[in-house]
């Protein structure tokens, strides 16, 4: 059953991120003002004390961590850095002292530690990083993997399909998610060796609609899109660049024309603010690492307080859901069909 009644304990890497502890702690405070949960801030106690008001100090737990893994450090070194904030935050989940971990620090270190220290779900060979992308429909499109597994096998993509469907159902509230495999054409015959092999396996996933193209991510015709981590990461960063470029071009054109300036002023609240909200990563908070035996949310290094708040909300929603049980259920049932 879903853990809807328990108070969720969220371990937060207070030192991770490009801008130090200030936006992370501010995001934690904003989250505390809106939802009931138990925050556990992990990092240098002196720094945490300098940014958090006395009133909130009484509501948080603090775990001292002297070391911080820098963005330039190798992810493989994370296992040896046992005094680092991200290592200790992950260990809280491993030891059952926290239900979820949130970090805007070194994403590679976070994923490595979550995978190896928290561990994978029994039928998952490799976890996947999932992200929400805007579309023209009423919900978002879940895309995975966007960077955890660069070299994929067909079995990995099949497992991603099960994980994506479970997340769409249990966390996003989509009753019958449509699952597509990213390829260079919609026809069943399209794709490379990897996608053709994965296509056969994914046919057993309920709601699998076949191959989809990149444009289908944004037109609302599919709820979950499966791809390898290399392609997914390129797709994610390209999409962010396109969105930023479009907004910049719009601003440049508006400055050149008085009628455009007047129109922009009239549209500012309803159109531009809505558009900005749709493509702002801060609205989503972070990317869940699906397939670990717990909950790990990987946030953008440049996360502001709003992004951290929403990452914490993601962790709470994930923990209260039945997504991990649902993933296992899907894989076990499908495995039994083929025995």
* First-to-last CA distance: 28 Å
Task: Work out the number of β strands.
Answer: 11
* CATH homolog superfamily of the domain at 1-124 and 291-339: Isopropylmalate Dehydrogenase
Write down the secondary-structure element order.
EHEHHEHEHEEHEHEEHHEEHH
What can be said about the biggest beta sheet? 11 strands, mixed
Oligomer: single chain
Low-confidence stretches: none
Shape call: globular
Percent of residues in beta strands? Answer: 5-15%
Helix amount: 40-55%
Evaluate the radius of gyration: 21 Å
Strand order of the largest sheet: 3-2-1-4-11-10-5-6-9-7-8
Structural class of the secondary structure composition?
alpha/beta
- At CATH's second level, what is the architecture of the domain at 1-124 and 291-339? 3-Layer(aba) Sandwich
Describe the protein's architecture and organization.
Helices cover 45% and strands 14% of the residues. It is built from eleven helices and eleven strands. Strands 3-2-1-4-11-10-5-6-9-7-8 form an eleven-stranded mixed β-sheet, sandwiched between helices. It has a domain of 173 residues: Isopropylmalate Dehydrogenase (3-Layer(aba) Sandwich), CATH 3.40.718. By secondary structure, it is α/β, with parallel strands linked by helices.
């Amino acid at each position: 059953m879903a853990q809807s009644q328990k108070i969720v304990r969220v371990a937060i890497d207070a030192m991770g991120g490009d801008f130090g502890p200030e936006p992370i702690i501010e995001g934690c405070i904003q989250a505390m003002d809106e939802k009931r949960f138990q925050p556990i801030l992990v990092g240098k106690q002196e720094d945490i004390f300098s940014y958090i008001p006395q009133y909130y100090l009484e509501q948080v737990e603090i775990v001292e961590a002297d070391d911080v893994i820098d963005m330039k450090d190798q992810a493989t070194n994370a296992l040896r850095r046992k005094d680092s904030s991200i290592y200790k935050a992950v260990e809280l989940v491993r030891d059952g002292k926290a239900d979820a971990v949130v970090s805007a620090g070194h994403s590679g270190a976070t994923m490595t530690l979550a995978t190896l220290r928290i561990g994978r779900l029994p039928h998952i060979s490799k976890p996947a990083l999932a992200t929400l992308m805007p579309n023209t429909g009423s919900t978002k499109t879940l895309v995975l993997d966007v960077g955890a597994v660069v070299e994929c096998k067909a079995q990995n993509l099949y497992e991603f399909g099960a994980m994506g469907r479970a997340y769409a159902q249990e966390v996003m509230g989509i009753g019958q998610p449509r699952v597509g495999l990213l390829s260079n054409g919609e026809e069943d015959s399209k794709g490379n060796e990897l996608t053709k092999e994965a296509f056969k396996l994914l046919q057993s996933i309920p709601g699998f609609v076949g191959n989809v193209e990149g444009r289908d991510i944004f037109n609302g015709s599919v709820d979950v899109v499966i791809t390898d981590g290399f392609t997914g990461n390129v797709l994610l960063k390209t999409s962010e660049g396109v969105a930023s470029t479009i907004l910049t071009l719009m601003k440049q054109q508006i400055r050149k024309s008085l009628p455009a300036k007047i129109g922009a002023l009239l549209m500012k609240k309803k159109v531009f603010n809505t558009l900005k909200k749709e493509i702002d990563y801060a609205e989503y908070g972070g990317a869940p690492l699906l397939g670990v035996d717990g909950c790990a949310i990987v946030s953008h290094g440049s996360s502001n307080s709003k992004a951290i708040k929403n990452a914490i909300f993601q962790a709470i929603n994930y923990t209260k859901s039945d997504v991990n049980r649902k993933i296992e259920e899907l894989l076990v049932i499908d495995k039994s069909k083929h025995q």
